[in-house]
Write a structure and sequence with these properties.
This protein is of the alpha/beta class and about 325 residues long. It has nine helices and 16 strands. Strands 3-4-7-8-9-10-15-16 form an eight-stranded parallel barrel, surrounded by six helices. Strands 5-6-14-11 form a four-stranded antiparallel beta sheet, with no helix packed on it. A two-stranded antiparallel sheet has the order 1-2. Strand 12 and strand 13 form a beta hairpin. Bound molecules: 3,4-dihydroxybenzoic acid. 3,4-dihydroxybenzoic acid binds next to loops.
Length: about 325
């Protein structure tokens, strides 16, 4: 038997593969297509206090090895979520992480406090890094003291796992990792999407209504690996690696550079069972190479640190 599980603040995840926020709805849309109980966990689409329609179309553009999105935090709102979506999630045998987005610190606190009163939520992932809204989003996530403050405030409101989802759109993600660790976060999700754009040369207009959007998919995997590696050099809290994971091999790269677990996102749009397949593939790798506990792979990459350029500014 290979040990695949890991624990975060007392919550046990049966394996190291979660599905990323915004790519799996609230778990119910895909229930005929995939056995979601084979996932380590589900991160819900970001929840805000009020329902949001999100940005006008066009909101999604395919790009080489990836996609751009500008959804604008469209979501059903926390009250509707509790009434209409949470009852189904409660029936599942997998960890449920509620992702929260907000345009003020008070709104983060209000949403989390309301969710705290409900049964069936195992932890929180805080989106301080949506690239597609004018208020909140990146204006929080690129401000280290704001990110620290949000973490500290939310920490006082919950004893459940508090995961801060960091943006790669900063100079040194390690500063943000340090700040949220000091403020009491239990883990960090690294990375959210990378700001990008695409242009329609015939209309001479941006393809996305909001001009720029968030780039995801295999195109960002090398960036994500470098950011996870950087963060892992400076914090001891667990890192959940995200960015272009399509296969078990991709996920294993993330573990080796220091991720304790991973999230599969964009791949779900091609195959909603991608996360389950990644978990199965990691188990096969472990069997084949005599790894008794996948945890042994976390940070196990041998690196030529003396040649690493990164070290000079950590
Ligand atoms: C949204 C898009 C993202 O790429 C992201 O990381 C978070 C939120 C959005 O527009 O809803």
């Amino acid at each position: 038997m290979i040990k695949e599980s890991f624990t975060l603040r007392g919550v046990e995840f049966k394996n190291r593969v979660l599905v990323a926020s915004g790519t799996f709805g609230y778990g119910n849309e895909v229930k005929e297509l995939v056995d979601v109980n084979k996932l380590g966990g589900i991160c819900t689409k970001s929840l805000s206090w009020k329902p949001r329609d999100g940005n006008p179309p066009r909101r999604i553009v395919e790009t080489p090895s990836g996609m751009l999105n500008s959804i604008g935090l469209a979501n059903v709102g926390v009250e509707y979520f509790i009434r209409e979506k949470l009852p189904y999630l409660r029936t599942l045998d997998t960890v449920i992480i509620a992702n929260i987005a907000a345009s003020s610190i008070q709104e983060y606190c209000d949403v989390l406090s309301l969710l705290e009163q409900q049964e069936g939520i195992d932890g929180y992932e805080i989106n301080v890094s949506c690239p597609n809204v004018k208020e909140g989003g990146l204006s929080f996530g690129t401000d280290c003291s704001k990110t620290r403050e949000i973490t500290a405030r939310l920490r006082t409101l919950t004893a459940k796992p508090l995961i801060m989802k960091l943006t790669p759109n900063v100079t040194h993600i390690s500063e943000f990792a340090r700040a949220v660790e000091e403020a009491g976060a239990d883990a960090i999700s690294v990375i959210n999407t990378v700001i990008g754009m695409a242009v329609d040369i015939y209309k001479k207009k941006p393809k996305l209504s909001t001009v720029t959007g968030g780039l995801s998919g295999p195109a960002i995997k090398p960036i994500a690996l470098a950011k996870v590696y950087e963060a892992a050099q400076v914090v001891s809290l667990p890192i959940i690696g995200i960015g272009g994971i399509m296969t078990a091999e991709d996920a294993l790269e993330f573990l080796l550079v220091g991720a304790t677990a991973v999230q599969v996102g964009t791949a779900n749009f091609i195959d909603p069972s991608a996360g389950v397949k990644v978990a199965e593939g990691m188990r096969s790798y472990a069997q084949r190479f005599g790894v008794s506990d996948l945890g042994q792979l976390v940070g196990a990459m041998e690196s030529n640190k003396e040649f690493s350029v990164l070290q000079s500014w950590l």
